[in-house]
Design a protein that fits this description.
Layout: H1 13-16, E1 39-45, E2 48-58, H2 62-73, E3 78-81, E4 92-96, H3 97-106, H4 109-115, E5 117-119, E6 121-126, E7 137-140, E8 150-154, H5 155-167, E9 172-175, E10 179-184, E11 189-193, E12 198-206, H6 213-218, E13 222-238, E14 245-251, E15 254-261, E16 270-277, H7 279-286, H8 290-300, E17 308-310, E18 315-324, E19 328-329, E20 332-334, E21 340-341, H9 349-363, H10 372-405, H11 409-424, H12 426-437, H13 452-456
Parallel strand pairs: 2-3, 2-12, 3-9, 6-14, 12-20
Antiparallel strand pairs: 1-2, 4-8, 5-8, 6-7, 10-11, 11-12, 13-16, 13-17, 13-18, 14-15, 15-16, 18-21, 19-20
Helix pairs in contact: 2-5, 2-9, 9-10, 11-12
Length: 457
């Protein structure tokens, strides 16, 4: 299933030209500690005071907010520093079962479910017009004993829920400011804010995005690449029901995906759309009158959902990918888009980011953050986990995306054979579903407890 995950950059004239591939570049124990608010000291930094805290989370997007809540829940003094992200037009996030359990552990699930729509199945349809027909593939939550694979919610609404929870936590110091620089050494770490204030911490969680300053200061290398695609995102209302099923048409320009949204007054049937296409097609479609674009969307959906109406602004972002050489160093760990970016295929983006957070919290759960040797062992474990999890999913998404946009018969045959095998073999299909929603090799403890309310319902 596709989920809005990628750069927030708008499509500029420079972007209209296909971008070249980029080369790699450089860039106490919880149970015994009582919850305390971060401490302020005398004026000891140019232009401001010094704050001391256990954990500093850099970045106030959904991943940073979730990280602050996770570490505060464990009893650590936590400072969250960053600017809140601007609204993202037409963007939603599909959160699978492991992420649903994580949100439940944070105390956010009830609010999220009130704003979200359950996704009970994913339906994938080959629309590449390849030589040999490929059967339709449907992955249902009921096959693995779940009421739903997950939920789909507006990105802005999710950020709002998490932000409200952060503001309600006295053990989290929320600082809406830019970080100008970092100091990283064996004894501690510090962030120097743009207004001169200084935040000292035993450990820094970098959730400050693809252009992370923390990652650059740490000297962690980055490998980036681009695809000749743009994603358009929007929210739609349509004539016929979606039945809580996400539907993907796999086309030669990439997936065209409708993900269920909850009803609203006057709009009983709603979905979000993530539509991958060439840069030229994106420019052409953005220039169309909205009514003409709605007709084209209806055609792409084979009129299965009837007439379409766009109810939101249209978002756009270029397709690209990113990996890092390591996921932690010294007193710093990377989470979210600070350490991985890939196309919005399979709804892996934010699910993987939340798994970063839960895994890091798990690895640090019994560590004295001031003990360099203990911390080093914990971060080695974290890096090993993330390298396996992120690498597996980045490679899988990359292969699927390239298999769609490269009209090469052997590639088509391989993709088609994979669909046939998953559709025909029940054990394989159930294994694919489980791995997508509840990864069995690396599942942090905050993601292990089933949600009782969901199962009872």
């Amino acid at each position: 299933m596709t989920s809005g995950h990628g750069s927030r950059d708008s499509l500029t004239q420079a972007d209209i030209r296909a971008a070249p591939t980029l080369a790699p570049r450089s860039a106490g124990r919880y149970n015994d500690r009582k919850i305390r608010s971060p401490e302020m000291t005398e004026q000891s930094a140019p232009g401001g005071a010094t704050m001391k805290t256990d954990i500093l989370v850099a970045g106030a997007g959904s991943t940073g907010l979730a990280a602050a809540l996770a570490f505060a829940r464990s009893g650590l003094r936590t400072a969250l520093v960053g600017r809140f992200p601007p609204p993202l037009p037409g963007r939603t996030v599909a959160l699978f079962e492991a992420s649903v359990r994580f949100l439940d552990a944070l105390g956010a699930l009830e609010r999220v479910k009130a704003l979200a729509c359950p996704v009970e199945a994913i339906r994938m349809i080959d629309d590449t017009d390849q030589l040999f027909p490929v059967p339709e593939l449907t992955l249902r939550a009921s096959e693995v004993g779940l009421p739903a694979l997950g939920v789909n919610i507006s990105n802005d609404e999710l950020v709002g829920v998490l932000l409200d929870l952060v503001r309600a936590k006295p053990e989290i110091e929320l600082i809406e400011a830019d970080i100008a620089d970092y100091e990283l050494n064996g004894a501690g770490a510090a962030a120097i804010l743009a207004d001169g204030r200084r935040v000292e911490a035993d450990f820094i969680v970098a959730a400050d995005g693809r252009n992370s300053r923390a990652r650059a200061v740490a000297g962690i290398d980055v490998k980036e690449w681009t695809y000749p695609q743009v994603a358009l995102t929007m929210m739609l209302r349509h004539e016929f029901p979606h039945d809580n099923i996400s539907t993907e048409w796999h086309t030669r320009s990439g997936p065209f995906t409708l993900v269920p949204l909850p009803p609203r007054e006057g709009a009983p049937h709603r979905s979000s759309l993530v539509w991958l296409m060439s840069v030229a097609d994106a420019r052409r479609r953005l220039a169309k009158p909205r009514e003409e674009l709605e007709y084209e969307i209806e055609d792409y959906a084979k009129s299965e959902f009837g007439a379409m109406r766009i109810e939101s602004d249209i978002g756009q972002f270029r397709m690209g990918g990113m990996q890092v050489s390591q996921h932690a160093m010294g007193r710093l760990a990377l989470v979210g888009e600070t350490c991985h970016i890939f196309p919005p295929i399979g709804a892996q983006g934010l699910n993987l980011s939340l798994r970063d957070v839960a895994d890091l919290e798990d690895c640090l759960a019994s560590v004295d953050l001031r003990n360099a040797r203990e911390l080093s062992r914990a971060l080695t474990r974290y890096d090993r986990h993330r390298r396996a999890d992120i690498g597996f999913r980045t490679h899988g998404v990359d292969v699927l995306n390239r298999s769609l946009i490269i009209p090469y018969l052997p590639v088509d045959l391989f993709r088609g054979a994979s669909f046939v095998a998953v559709a025909a073999l029940g054990p394989l299909r159930r294994a694919v579903i489980r791995e997508g929603v509840l990864p069995h090799l690396i599942l942090p403890r905050m993601m292990r407890t089933p949600v009782r309310e969901a199962r009872a319902g």
